[in-house]
Structure formats: C-alpha cells, structure tokens
C-alpha cells in the first residue's frame, strides 16, 4: 500500500514574505562577492607564481654566467693539445656569447 500526502483543499502554500525575498537576493549578492574574491585570489596566486618563475629563471641565468666565468678561468697550459683545443674553442664561444649579451646591455644603457 502506497501512502500519499494529500494537502487539504483549503490550505495554500505560504507566500514568501519580504524578508524571505530579501534573504534570497542577498544570497546571490554574497555569492557574487565570493566569486569575485575567489577570482581575485586566483589572479594573485597566478601573479605570484609568475614572479617566482621569473626569479628562478634569473637565478638560473646568473648561475650559468658564473659557471661560464669560472670556465674562462680554466688554464690550458698543463693540458695536451687536443684537450686544450676544445677548451679554447668553448672559451671562444662563451666570450662571443658574453659580447653579444653585453652589447644588448650597452644598448639599454644608451636609452637612459
């Protein structure tokens, strides 16, 4: 046997009061504000991640420059001709790269 709830014919569902309508409207406003806050938080997190990435990239470039400078200080006087040849060749590549990098920086200095 299935029981069904039957509403008496003379009873109507209660109408929403003004305070109920205001509460539902306020809820959507709060929801919009929450959405805006979440969007702002995500934007700030993304910007922080981008800054961290750039800082790490700059650190990596600095470490590479230091390694190149250290390599340039490598002496070839006690090496055989073949090893000295390859080290001198690598030193030349590093020097050319540094000249190009410094050339770019000199261009930036002229703008100031």
TrEMBL record:
Q: Where is the composition biased (Basic residues)?
A: 1-16
- Region named Disordered: 1-35
* Ranges annotated as biased composition (Low complexity): 21-32
Protein name, please? No apical meristem-associated C-terminal domain-containing protein
């Amino acid at each position: 046997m299935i029981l069904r709830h039957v509403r008496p014919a003379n009873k109507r569902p209660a109408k929403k009061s003004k305070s109920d309508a205001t509460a539902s409207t306020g809820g959507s406003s709060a929801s919009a504000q929450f959405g805006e806050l979440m969007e702002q938080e995500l934007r700030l997190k993304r910007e922080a991640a981008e800054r961290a990435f750039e800082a790490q990239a700059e650190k990596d470039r600095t470490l590479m420059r230091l390694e190149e400078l250290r390599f340039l200080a490598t002496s070839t006087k006690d090496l055989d001709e073949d090893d000295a040849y390859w080290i001198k060749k690598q030193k030349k590549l590093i020097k050319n790269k540094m000249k190009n990098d410094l050339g770019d920086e000199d261009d930036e200095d002229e703008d100031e």
